[in-house]
Specification:
Blueprint lengths: L1 H34 L3 H4 L3 E4 L4 E4 L3 H21 L11 E6 L2 H4 L5 E2 L2 E2 L4 E4 L5 E6 L6 H11 L9 H11 L3 E2 L5 E4 L4 H9 L5 H6 L5 H4 L1 H20 L6 H12 L4 H9 L3 H13 L7 E4 L13 E3 L2 H14 L3 H14 L4 H15 L1
Length: 366
């Protein structure tokens, strides 16, 4: 009897251990299944077709509509100020609105083997233009900044990066004044003022030499002063000095656009040297409490009513296609392939995914 009792107790312990192990194994399997679920399983991707572009995203519907409305209003204001600038494109434009930076990171351009330190970007293409942005932004100015790049895409290729970014930063400060037809441009961003107050200015020769591969353009520790000074110099040349430098700025950009050397173009346009303009810029930034702004009253309303626009839920195949195509356009071919293959496996008849996959294969062979 004693032996039988001990055997029964041992068997009971074995059963308890086995049951506990089984529960752990099941829990582990469930955890693994959750971890390997593709991103679209947790996210609903929506799309809204606006007049001039398509807005898609895994952000919520109000945020997606808000981004589209901001851009439509900004486009109307820009068209009024610059009627000769082409507002449309020969290819469609898609705005991708990510719900947060965490979901945005896998779809950013790569710099030095890592996702670039970008809160948004504009990527032109021969078949489609993309603007990608996280909706978790404190200000729509970032979205306007990228749309300026889109609106000036035809003529900005010959401009130096500081001028492109400076113009985008200046016009990206677009704000409606609470009325349907009034807006302002030129507000001084507090982050730029703080940066310029705390850090030494870049010499203009250094600023003018920055290109797309420069650390000042890509690295978080150096981007701040580059963008701040690009904004400040552009703001000063357009709105400062009572307009005395404005025509010189236009002449400078014109000379650069036709390929003239930077130093020759600077001397001819501004009739001074780098040191003098550097002193003017420092005084402009550090010796003022108010900033000149441009206030505009349009004849017609530029506000946009988006309530009648239809929201569509994208299929899993469609969301995979858009993400794969975005990655294809920023040259992340391996990541693009994964998404495009997923799209095709879920919907073999999705023609855009098939077309992008064909382009991907051609680029992989080259």
């Amino acid at each position: 009897m004693v032996g039988s009792k001990k055997i029964a107790q041992a068997l009971s312990k074995i059963k308890c251990v086995f049951a506990a192990s089984l529960r752990c194994a099941v829990l582990l399997c469930l955890l693994i299944c959750v971890l390997i679920q593709p991103s679209y399983a947790a996210d609903k991707w929506l799309s809204v077709r606006f007049k001039d572009f398509l807005v898609i995203g895994n952000a919520n519907e109000p945020d997606i509509r808000r981004v589209g409305r901001y851009l439509e209003e900004f486009r109307s204001a820009f068209a009024m100020m610059f009627p000769k600038v082409e507002q449309t494109s020969s290819v469609p434009t898609t705005i991708v609105v990510f719900k947060n930076d965490e979901s945005f990171v896998p779809y950013k351009p790569v710099y030095d083997g890592k996702p670039a330190n970008a809160v948004a970007y504009f990527q032109p293409g021969e078949d489609v233009n993309y603007i990608a942005v996280s909706q978790a932004l404190s200000s729509p100015s970032v979205i306007f900044h990228e749309y300026v790049h889109f609106l000036t895409r035809e003529g900005s290729g010959a401009l130096p990066i500081w001028a492109r970014e400076g113009l985008a930063e200046c016009y990206g400060t677009f704000e409606m004044n609470g009325r349907q037809n009034e807006f302002t441009l030129g507000r001084a961003p507090e982050t730029h003022i703080a940066t310029l107050t705390e850090k030494p200015f870049l010499p203009l020769k250094t600023l003018f030499a920055v290109d797309s591969g420069s650390p000042y353009y890509n690295e978080a520790a150096k981007q701040g002063i580059f963008y701040a000074e690009s904004w400040a110099l552009t703001h000063y040349l357009i709105l400062g000095a009572e307009g005395k430098r404005r025509s010189q700025f236009v002449q400078f950009l014109t000379l650069l656009g036709r390929g003239d050397p930077v130093e020759d173009s600077f001397a001819e346009a501004f009739q001074t040297d780098y040191g003098t303009l550097e002193d003017e810029l420092r005084d402009y930034v550090r010796k003022r409490s108010t900033w000149p702004m441009l206030k505009v009253a349009a004849r017609e309303t530029i506000q946009v009513d988006v309530r009648s626009l239809k929201t569509t839920t994208l299929s899993e195949a469609e969301s995979e296609y858009y993400l794969g195509d975005l990655l294809l356009h920023i040259n992340r071919l391996g990541d693009s392939e994964t998404h495009l293959q997923n799209a095709i496996s879920k919907d073999p008849n999705l023609i855009p995914a098939q077309a992008s996959f064909g382009i991907l294969r051609v680029r992989q062979r080259n």
